[in-house]
Amino acid sequence: MEARIIVAGGGPVGSALGLMLPGALVLDRARFPRDKPCGEGLLPSGARLLGDLGVDLGAQGFPALSGVRYRLPGVGSARADFAEGPGYGVRRTRFDQLLATRAGVEQGTRVLGVRQLPGGVEVETDRGRLRGAALVAA
Prior knowledge:
Layout (H helix, E strand, L loop, with lengths): L1 E7 L3 H9 L4 E4 L12 E2 L1 H9 L11 E2 L1 E6 L3 E6 L5 E3 L2 H12 L2 E2 L3 E7 L2 E6 L2 E10 L1
Parallel strand pairs: 1-2, 1-11, 2-8
Antiparallel strand pairs: 3-7, 4-7, 5-6, 9-10, 10-11
Helix pairs in contact: 1-3
């Protein structure tokens, strides 16, 4: 199979790249939804980028956040309001699934090896070989 760009990893960064790069093929060994530990928040810059890609987090029901606060028990806390638009609370199971679906991530595909070729790469997966102009590890 031929692809312009192959992206290994269909999490938020890999899926966003899949939305940004026409003809990209995004692979992930996991099947979505999956749960991963994270802060479960997206800053305004990330929300704007996704909005530019047609993913409106507010319309998807993710709660808007006006700022962030960090607390350390017995020490205190620090808080700041977002200056340019809202961030969003994003549950990773739902957020990853939404982006992976929009980006057409090939789920359950494990990358086994990579070989540099003149003018591109060959990626060995558990489903066969792929050729592309470049590989991005996300």
